[in-house]
Queue: 2 jobs
Job 1
Amino acid sequence: MDWVGLVLALTIGALSSAVLVANNLRDIPTDTQSGKLTLAVRLGDTGTRTLYQALLAFAAVLTLTLIAATPWCAAGLAATPFAMRAARPVRSGRAGAELIPVLRDTGLTMLVWSIAVAAALALAA
């Protein structure tokens, strides 16, 4: 595997993890009540919100790194508006059902990023 493959794997992994972290953030109150010791419960609300935003930022930095492989990978930045929309409720402290759109928008971020970067790499080949 070359460095591009590693960066691609890390980026999609970060975005996938962000979806899971968003879901676990929403579930902290009920998981705490039922005694589930998820990572989100252990990190707490603030720590989980920080982790979510760090995963999105990490994916963005890795996308910029991919531009070294081919400038076409800048197409992955097309996912940025979805990531920003997804992070807004997390940053503003929304909770419960108000976090459901975060799951949708994080999934859309991952979908748009995947299609854009795959197309970019196909064009570069």
Job 2
Amino acid sequence: MSLLPQRSTVAVIASALGALPEPLAGDAMPGAQGALAPRSDFPLLVNHPGLHYLDSAATAQKPAAVLDAMRHYYEHDNANPHRGAYDLSARATERYHQARERIARFFGVADSACVIFTRGTTEAINLVASAWGRAALQPGDEIVVTALEHHANFVPWQQIARERGAVFRIAPLTDDGQVDVAGLASLVGARTRLVAVGHVSNALGTINSVAEIAWIAKRVGALVLVDGAQGAPHLRVDWPALLEAGVDLYAFSGHKMAGPMGIGGLLGRRTVLEAMPPYQTGGDMIDLVGDAESTWNALPHRLEAGTPNVADAVGLAAACDYLDAIGMERVRAHEMALVSLAMDRLATIPGVRVYGPADPALRSGVVAFTVDGIHPHDLATILDGGGVCIRAGHHCAQPLMRRLCVPATARASFYVYSDERDVEALVREVVRSRELFGVG
């Protein structure tokens, strides 16, 4: 039987994955010469003019527009929303409502009540694991994840499977760090209740075949959750297309998409969200509280207990404004250009091995690599001395590192403020590191 979807069109898959239109003949790839967004928009980069920040997969720098929006809220509208009859509280409530509506528009979500605010991707996935998992999973049911996952989309499912007596299955990878879709399909069967997959690998930058994987899961009626922590900042996420492809839930983090830390969310199919019992209980998520039992508020409030994080929601809405003004297709093209340049330049250095797909079109803005004779932690320390910030370690992906047969990698990751000079600084400092260690 063919593993390719019969009902989905190529356009649906391309839209769901944030694929790019073909460039016009003669057009240069955007971003090859300079940053897509000026460094002057980012106060931290202005304050550190010699810094080459290549750790955007961990957290993105924040434009002044985001910081200004948060400051304006605290200086003009700060109050506890939903609970006050006075004008200031009403304004705070309206700002919170407007932020949710704006973030919903960024993803193409028509029903903003299906945008659930969380602290980020990790909490969003734990919400589903706890609320849906405890209500839906029975002994012998199966959960399928991939060997490419961040721990936040691996450990919650591992633990809820242990708690509920479910079977935890791990889909294999191809040699170049992509999900082996045929291998995944062989694990999905009549007892599969959930398939969880990252939109983009934080460790390798691999863009996964989300629509194809969702189609496989839907053949057996399984729920599909996508970890969008690395997808939302770098690709155009078209929620209606993802719904049509079979995705039920999409988790994301604000701080990776130029917004503040401490805010993110869960996009959900309404029927799935309404079927989940509350993740936490307390204020604002209740309807009526009796002495013996209580009833729950409507979406989104029933899944958002406690005082809301209004200022960070306002900041994330401003980040959506900023990214929309640039255009997510341009973000994607810019990062492809930089990744292609970085991979080409690193390939000229003896002893450097780059991990993940060889084709930059299959990657987000991440280049993971090792240098023979230098531990990634030592490499990152030396690069820091040259003003180049990279991440080194297992990148919260220990199962992946075991499959790569390495204890750790170095990871350079790009964003809208990155440019060719950052790539050249990276290459220069890797060469210097080899000289310092006397390898080669």
